[in-house]
Design a protein that fits this description.
Bound molecules: pyridoxal-5'-phosphate
Strand order of the largest sheet: 2-8-7-6-5
Oligomer: single chain
CATH superfamily of the largest domain: Type I PLP-dependent aspartate aminotransferase-like (Major domain)
Shape: globular
Order of helices and strands: HEHHEHEHEHEHEHHEEHHHEHHEEHEHEE
Largest sheet: 5 strands, mixed
Radius of gyration: 21 Å
Structural class: alpha/beta
CATH architecture of the largest domain: 3-Layer(aba) Sandwich
CATH topology of the largest domain: Aspartate Aminotransferase, domain 2
Distance between the termini: 54 Å
Number of helices: 16
Helix content: 40-55%
């Protein structure tokens, strides 16, 4: 028999988590304005809000925390991280930042101006926020297959080359400072981008003289999918795939809280000195001096170690295997999910799950609230609340997909936890036809409203 995957690590330290009663949870979620971001984590049993900064560091990463160098300038830990980025990503220049959106803030300050357009595959919310904050427009060029949750396309994060070329033809080159490929594509369901697509997008960008960067938060998970789903890469090792992926781009912004398995950290990696120097000015202004950029020396040291661990094949196999495990469980209960499952999360199709609830009443958010009340499990809405209002018309934007995301922290939960989550959803699915009323907005912020929005029951 073929041997199944097993975690290539064992547990050295544990953290206790507490169960609660349904009555307590109903009270807590009401007090939180039905916004799961406002819950205390002590009131959550299994926390699948995000895989961002929630991973468990290894003993070797904790050793790096102890041996980090806290010098203001020229820190040894900075050079350690520089060496890793050079070697692993093949990028000669880098700037440390405190997290991914800080990298966006710094790099976009150097690149994007009012009236620009920035094409890409379903930009992440902070990325879009940083583009729109500069009065520029993000244009989604993801393939149409990404928006059909039942279609089995292996690379639903791919860009549609025709849509992209249309943008390049419609706007002057000066209006398109950069094209962004998000690997894996978080917003469309943690879906990977194929090497072929990355290569073709890169060729198209070169043809039109447009810069190309990665939003690289989950580059290693993307590399795993290239290895397991793209025939010609099945015998290529993860790190060679990573090297090739980065060979097609001019740079990257990275949230290290994802695939580098640290609790805080980010960076910008760049190929050209000129852009590096331009961005350096903003890094000093917003983040800190060039050799620490908003991070402690120990953070950079742990991040460097995390980049090596995050690109280990056996780790990725168990990581992505666990996501697939939860997806399979949900399918056994006939729960509609985005297929195939992506890298870091299972996405439940809330529109199909709750057919009797109108979209104006926030289907995915309603499902997220039900799941919390059912078993103390915290997921997150990737739907209308997140899509926010149109900056011009201020009307609600109804995205093509209305999803409940169950993001799985790295190296934190066991498959017993996954079974528990699946059982909670199965119970809600049994009574789905009785869920006919949702929520309305009581209070919201002008931008990125989902973090702070307050809701009322209809
Ligand atoms: C998390 C994330 C970001 C932002 O990073 P933070 O570290 O949360 O600031 C940007 N892009 C993608 C794809 C992400 O997943």
């Amino acid at each position: 028999m073929e041997l199944p995957y097993a975690e290539p690590y064992k547990i050295k330290v544990i953290e206790n988590i507490r169960k609660s009663s349904r009555q307590e949870r109903e009270q807590w979620i009401k007090e939180s304005g039905y916004n799961l971001f406002k819950l205390r984590s002590d009131h959550v049993f299994i926390d699948l809000l995000t895989d961002s900064g929630t991973g468990a560091m290894s003993d070797e990463q904790w050793s790096e925390i102890m041996s980090g160098d806290e010098s203001y300038a020229g820190s040894r830990s900075y050079f350690k991280l520089l060496d890793t980025i050079n070697e692993l990503l093949g990028m000669p220049y880098f700037l440390p930042t405190h997290q991914g959106r800080a990298a966006e803030n710094v790099l976009f300050s150097a690149l994007i101006k009012k009236g620009d357009v920035v094409p890409g595959n379903s930009h992440f919310d902070t990325t879009k926020g940083h583009i729109e904050f500069r009065k520029a427009t993000a244009i989604d060029c993801t393939i149409d297959e990404a928006f059909d949750t039942k279609g089995l396309h292996p690379f639903k994060g791919n860009l549609d080359l025709q849509k992209l070329e249309d943008v390049f033809k419609k706007y002057q080159k000066e209006k398109i400072p950069v094209c962004i490929i998000t690997v894996t594509c978080n917003t469309s369901g943690g879906q990977p981008v194929s090497m072929k697509n990355i290569r073709e997008v890169s060729e198209l960008c070169k043809k039109y003289g447009i810069k190309l960067i990665f939003d690289a938060a989950r580059f290693a998970e993307n590399a795993f999918f290239i290895k397991t789903r793209e025939e010609e890469y099945k015998n290529v090792c993860i790190r060679d795939i990573v090297k090739e992926m980065f060979s097609y781009v001019d740079g990257a912004t990275m949230s290290s809280k994802k695939d580098a398995i640290v609790n805080i950290g980010g960076f910008i990696a760049l190929r050209e000195k000129e852009l590096f120097e331009k961005a350096s000015v903003y890094n000093i202004m917003f983040e800190g001096y060039l050799t620490y950029g908003g991070l402690a020396g120990r953070d950079m040291a742990a991040l460097s170690q995390g980049l090596w661990e995050g690109t280990n094949f056996h780790y990725l196999e168990s990581r992505i295997g666990q996501v697939a495990y939860l997806g399979e469980k949900l399918k056994e209960y006939n729960i509609p999910i985005q297929e195939p499952t992506g890298g870091h999360a299972v996405f439940v199709d809330a529109r199909l799950f709750l057919p009797n609830l109108p979209k104006e009443q926030f289907q995915a958010q309603t499902l997220a609230i039900e799941l919390y009340k059912e078993g103390g499990v915290r997921g997150v809405e990737i739907g209308t609340l997140l899509a926010d209002r149109d900056p011009q018309t201020r009307e609600n934007r109804y995205p093509k997909l209305e999803l409940l995301r169950l993001a799985i922290p790295r190296r934190v939960y066991t498959n017993n936890h996954m079974d528990y989550v699946a059982a909670c959803l199965a119970n809600i699915y049994d009574r789905r036809n009785d869920i006919t009323t949702g929520y309305k907005i009581a209070k919201e912020a002008p931008i990125m409203r989902h973090f702070t929005v307050e809701l009322e029951k209809m």
